[in-house]
From TrEMBL:
<dbReference type="InterPro" id="IPR029058">
    <property type="entry name" value="AB_hydrolase_fold"/>
</dbReference>
<dbReference type="Pfam" id="PF12697">
    <property type="entry name" value="Abhydrolase_6"/>
</dbReference>
<dbReference type="InterPro" id="IPR000073">
    <property type="entry name" value="AB_hydrolase_1"/>
</dbReference>
<protein>
    <submittedName>
        <fullName>Alpha/beta hydrolase</fullName>
    </submittedName>
</protein>
<keyword id="KW-0378">Hydrolase</keyword>
<dbReference type="GO" id="GO:0016787">
    <property type="term" value="F:hydrolase activity"/>
</dbReference>
<dbReference type="InterPro" id="IPR050266">
    <property type="entry name" value="AB_hydrolase_sf"/>
</dbReference>
<feature type="domain" description="AB hydrolase-1">
    <location>
        <begin position="22"/>
        <end position="242"/>
    </location>
</feature>
Amino acid sequence: MTYPIIEEDGFKYIEAGTGETLVLLHGLMGELSNWELVIEQFKDRYRVIIPILPIYDLPILTLGVKALSRYLHRFLKYKNLNQVVLVGNSLGGHVGLVFTVAHQEFVKALVLTGSSGLYENAFGGSFPRRESYDYIKEKVEFTFYDPATATKELVDDVFKTVNDRSRVIRILTMAKSAIRHNMAKELSKITIPVSLIWGKNDKVTPPEVAEEFHELLPNSELNWVDKCGHAPMMEHPEIFNAFLEKFLDRILLK
């Protein structure tokens, strides 16, 4: 990542640009670098901020989607941010949904890509062969339509993380919290504009999940990215950015 991580008052984040604020929320295993091409595209016209969600820092007894939503609330208040556009991938989308239900006054619009919150077919409840590099490589490749997107650097990072006992326990705790926290009955409360940007070949949160989100979110649009898995902003950043730009132009530049 070419942007320095800012650390202050217990928060860690990346920030670039000025203007209307986009807050990018990473997934459970997501690196900040997953968003690099989004930052590059939008930093000339928007203020882009990526908070590091404290998955490895919060007390494990309270760790869950709601705890991350509370952290996001503290962060936005600390930065004196209001009427932001939340953009979340996977778990980050789920955190954005939980936060928006509780604090819709902070959010001008929401963008979800491969979001959990309804159903996900992720790693499941364990990593039965986490010591096997080939097994982890296969799991990372499962995330994408094109396995080549799972670079050696990315696989190395995931392999290192899941073989850190403290971290893997937290990842599994977090994943179970996300699975338990189904949001189907709460989505109708979100009346702000929502853009769903979804990989048509997503195997983690399949297309029918996007269709259900679209049906349950009253002010939503659904955009498909063909030949794309769970992380469109990584696998097809140009298409993802084009959809995002069109949405932002519609809701912010009226």
